[in-house]
Design a protein that fits this description.
Number of strands: 0
Helix content: 55-70%
Order of helices and strands: HHHHHH
Structural class: mainly alpha
Largest sheet: none
Shape: globular
């Protein structure tokens, strides 16, 4: 994984948080065009802006920069039953990946 995927990851996380480019740009105090350029891989944020992106989207810079493929997320606001369902789903995916890797 390289920094070339930064824009794709940023766009995916932004959309998963149900934010528009304009809403994210306002939170980061940059222009909408700047966010668009980040997502298209035309430019990259300063370290200061990267920290703001991570804080705003509650994401690891390691994930955005391609250092790690681990996507951590907060499960605050979910009921115990909803958290259990998510954890079961993740477990099923992990098991399926193990089975695929064995083949």
């Amino acid at each position: 994984m390289t920094i070339n995927y930064f824009g794709e990851k940023l766009k995916s996380i932004r959309k998963s948080k149900r934010l528009t480019q304009l809403e994210l740009s306002e939170r980061l105090q940059v222009s909408k065009g700047t966010v668009s350029a980040y997502e298209q891989g035309l430019s990259y944020p300063s370290i200061e802006t990267l920290v703001k992106i991570c804080d705003t989207l509650e994401i690891s810079s390691d994930y955005l920069l391609g250092i790690s493929d681990d996507l951590t997320f907060k499960m605050g606001g979910l009921t115990d039953q909803q958290m259990e369902s998510i954890l079961q789903f993740i477990s099923l995916i992990e098991q399926a990946n193990k089975n695929v890797n064995r083949q």
